[in-house]
Design goal:
InterPro entries: AlphaKG_dependent_hydroxylases (IPR050411), GBBH-like_N (IPR010376), GBBH-like_N_sf (IPR038492), TauD-like_sf (IPR042098), TauD/TfdA-like (IPR003819), Trimethyllysine_dOase (IPR012776). The chain contains 12 helices and 25 strands. With 476 residues, the chain is an alpha+beta fold. Strands 10-11-21-14-23-12 form a 6-stranded mixed sheet. 35% of the residues are buried. Bound molecules: N-trimethyllysine (M3L) and 2-oxoglutaric acid. The site of N-trimethyllysine has 10 residues, from strand 12.
Length: 476
Amino acid sequence: MSRLLRSAIFSGNTVRSTSGRTVASLRRDSINCGPIPRCCRYSSKLSPSASASASASASASAALRPTPSDLQASAAYRDSLPVCAVDKKRVMIGWDTRTWSRFHHVWLRDHCRCTKCFHQITKQRLVNTFEIPADIEPLEVAPTAEGLSVTWSGTQPHLSIYPWSWLQSNSYDPPLEHARSSQEKVLWGSKIQQHPPAVSYEEVMNPDDKGLHKWLLKIDEFGFCFVNGVPPTPEATEELSMRIGFIRETQYGKFWDFTSDLAKGDTAYTTLALGAHTDNTYFTDPCGIQLFHLLSHTGGTGGATLLVDGFYVASILRATHPSVYSLLSRVPVIAHAAGEPGALYIPSPSSGYPVLGHGRVTGELVQVRWNNDDRSVVKGVTGDEMEEWYNAIRVWHKLLTSPDSEYWVQLSAGTAVAVDNHRVLHGRSAFDGKRRMCGAYIGIDEYKSKLTVLQERFEINLPQVVQGRSIWHPHI
Ligand SMILES: C[N+](C)(C)CCCC[C@H](N)C(=O)O
Ligand SMILES: O=C(O)CCC(=O)C(=O)O
């Protein structure tokens, strides 16, 4: 009968306690088992594949379920810690009877964050990855209140301790849903006009950064957020923009203050209507945030602002036209900015990027790139696919321009809007008269970095903080 082990050496089909006593012989796929007490409040829901293997090992291990006296006897149970088992290549951690993670010894050694292996201030690796033996094995593995304790062999035994929450959020075999899943996104259509996200200029500018945190969380959640009570000046708007991060300078300048005078070679500097688009499709790295503040509009009408949630429209496209969704996720589109004599931008690689961009690991939609005016010659499509591609962008355009998707709002001096240019498309209606708009681009990395730092400050509480940052921050 197996026992819950504080630590065990798993060799072949035998599980031995660290004192070498054989405590059980198991089939490989039924490593240890039994009702493992939860060691902390984890939301360790398995990915589908992992839960399949977990249910296989759970049913196989049902026969090995320890008796209540075994449980009482187990130190792990008393300390309500995960249980661990070890084989020649990996450490297995049992979070509960259905949830196990497996970490390779070489991976664990490479991720030691003691003062010798990891620079506590710069958060950079010091251990020489390439001097770690490929067949490295631990001398001992033990669950402790602090985390998984591993003693490595070597001229000097080396002790590494890995916090349980860090191991859970970095579990790769299987990937576990992060203990702290990222904020849910709220997808919206035209009805957002009933209650659009907004914060006040005063709270955003407060040096305690709580208002800034609130603003960026709303942008992360909705893809845009208004700021009310902004002094109607370019100076105040520039200062507001820089609360997010340094301004991204482009061929249009740094902070822009523009009107319909073709001062720059782009239709934004005309009175023409602009259909729903994302900016910078001609850049390899389109800006993350675009901030707009209408300073004045005199002697004319029109110039209303259009916002469309690209993630919302993509979700409808995926449900109603899956083959179109797939085509727009696969076919690269080239774009250019060629209106300024001293500049001609196309992305790198020059084949461009698909309209719908997805995360390489999660496969989730992470970026919409669409500007039909800036689109260059269609090249990434075969002759057989060309008609299908035009049909695809017609379907996409129809959904983008549907009354259900479009949120029209007339901006006015005093109200700025920050837009996530990787998710929300913007545009405007044609206008006449004198219209003055100002704003700025902020890079996606600067925006995400600021949000991460604010979440680090206001939302998470991690161990071993050195100079304001935990060496176990989930992003490093
Ligand atoms: C924002 N500002 C007025 C400076 C320039 C606008 C450039 C718009 C360009 N067609 C694009 O889609 O990126
Ligand atoms: O003038 C406007 O309201 C928006 C212009 C625009 O779409 C842009 O600058 O990207």
